[in-house]
């Protein structure tokens, strides 16, 4: 990992409730154990805080040398990680021993740990006229060596666990991305199939109109090919695709199709999944306006919704039957919203209101998170 990646990983580690829960439990259990063994209850000084400091170091900082590579690799190889972990952890252990005055939980000498805490480091202990046996240099060296070994081993285990979790997350995201891509690829031929079906209806009745529709169909195909490999489009680009589709339907239905746009141009730069609006428009024409002899009215709206946005397609005509609710386009849309992190139950609604059928998509923050 590079420095910025390690920083993000460390911040994530510190934000985990489990990390702070483990630190809190370790510190409390150690202090309670000392008190239960007959030692005086430690005041809120370095002696009581020492186990929390050691737990923080072991759980948060010890994995760092195992993660540093300076490149895109997720972690250091075992030999390199060991060479980096030993000096890093040795420095941290000596620094903590100096600051805490050999304040490792469990340093149970005749005077507990209080004599060496906060303000009297190792230098202060060497200046004592009579040094307790537990503070002898060889005892401190053994203590430091034990801390060092534990930090090196625990850091390696934690770094390896985090790499495994990251690999699993990447695999899940890759699977979701593949599924999302498959759904998007399913939509492209579905749109073209319905458009070609409309052209076929016009060939006998209006050959000249069918020729114009074929030109628009070529433009629609060009848009679908241009955006086929993308996971998101701006709303301006999404509107272009819908306008191309509506141009064909307008030639086919003529005055039977009345189109009205209520579009906030300030939201044009927001990005959304491709073909988010088109299935709603297609559903409104196919199941609502198209079957009616008199046709109907289609209203397409884009407006702010909190910090996000709201897309609405409303149409007159027939109310949506079960086939409209379960159409390929709408099922595809709901599944893509779910894969992108939005809740289809709350982000998408389709209902009848008087003479109007309304379909609404609400995306907080401008759109669901990309996979």
UniProtKB/TrEMBL annotation:
<feature type="transmembrane region" description="Helical">
    <location>
        <begin position="140"/>
        <end position="159"/>
    </location>
</feature>
<dbReference type="GO" id="GO:0016020">
    <property type="term" value="C:membrane"/>
</dbReference>
<keyword id="KW-0812">Transmembrane</keyword>
<keyword id="KW-0472">Membrane</keyword>
<feature type="transmembrane region" description="Helical">
    <location>
        <begin position="86"/>
        <end position="108"/>
    </location>
</feature>
<feature type="domain" description="Signal transduction histidine kinase internal region">
    <location>
        <begin position="178"/>
        <end position="257"/>
    </location>
</feature>
<dbReference type="InterPro" id="IPR010559">
    <property type="entry name" value="Sig_transdc_His_kin_internal"/>
</dbReference>
<dbReference type="Pfam" id="PF06580">
    <property type="entry name" value="His_kinase"/>
</dbReference>
<dbReference type="InterPro" id="IPR050640">
    <property type="entry name" value="Bact_2-comp_sensor_kinase"/>
</dbReference>
<keyword id="KW-1133">Transmembrane helix</keyword>
<dbReference type="InterPro" id="IPR036890">
    <property type="entry name" value="HATPase_C_sf"/>
</dbReference>
<feature type="transmembrane region" description="Helical">
    <location>
        <begin position="48"/>
        <end position="66"/>
    </location>
</feature>
<protein>
    <recommendedName>
        <fullName>Signal transduction histidine kinase internal region domain-containing protein</fullName>
    </recommendedName>
</protein>
<dbReference type="GO" id="GO:0000155">
    <property type="term" value="F:phosphorelay sensor kinase activity"/>
</dbReference>
């Amino acid at each position: 990992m590079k420095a910025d990646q390690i920083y993000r990983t460390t911040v994530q580690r510190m934000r985990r409730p489990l990390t702070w829960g483990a630190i809190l439990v370790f510190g409390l259990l150690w202090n309670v154990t000392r008190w239960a063994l007959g030692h005086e209850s430690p005041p809120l000084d370095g002696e009581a805080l020492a186990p929390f400091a050691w737990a923080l170091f072991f759980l948060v900082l010890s994995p760092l040398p195992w993660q540093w590579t300076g490149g895109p690799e997720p972690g250091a190889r075992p030999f390199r990680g060991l060479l980096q972990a030993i000096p890093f952890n040795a420095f941290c252990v000596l620094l903590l021993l100096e600051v805490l005055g050999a304040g490792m939980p469990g340093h149970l000498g005749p005077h507990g740990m209080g004599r060496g805490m906060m303000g009297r480091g190792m230098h202060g202990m060497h200046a004592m006229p009579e040094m307790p046996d537990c503070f002898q240099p060889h005892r401190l060296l053994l203590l430091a060596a034990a801390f060092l070994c534990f930090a090196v081993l625990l850091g390696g285990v934690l770094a390896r666990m985090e790499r495994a979790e990251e690999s699993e997350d990447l695999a899940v995201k890759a699977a979701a991305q593949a599924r999302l891509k498959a759904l998007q690829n399913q939509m492209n031929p579905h749109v073209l199939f319905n458009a070609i079906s409309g052209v076929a209806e016009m060939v006998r009745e209006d050959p000249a109109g069918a020729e114009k529709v074929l030109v628009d169909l070529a433009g629609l195909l060009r848009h679908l090919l241009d955006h086929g490999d993308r996971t998101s489009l701006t709303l301006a680009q999404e509107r272009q695709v819908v306008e191309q589709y509506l141009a064909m339907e307008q030639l086919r239905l003529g005055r039977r199709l009345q189109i009205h746009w209520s579009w906030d141009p300030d939201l044009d730069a927001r990005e959304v999944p491709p073909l988010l609006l088109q299935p709603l428009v297609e559903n409104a024409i196919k199941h609502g306006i198209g079957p009616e002899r008199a046709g109907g009215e289609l209203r397409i709206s884009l407006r702010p919704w909190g910090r996000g946005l709201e897309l609405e397609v409303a149409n007159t005509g027939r109310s949506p039957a079960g086939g409209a609710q379960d159409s390929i386009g709408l099922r595809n849309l709901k599944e893509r919203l779910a894969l992108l992190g939005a809740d289809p139950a709350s982000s998408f609604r389709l209902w009848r209101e008087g003479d109007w059928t309304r379909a609404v998509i609400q995306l907080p923050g401008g759109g669901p998170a990309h996979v």
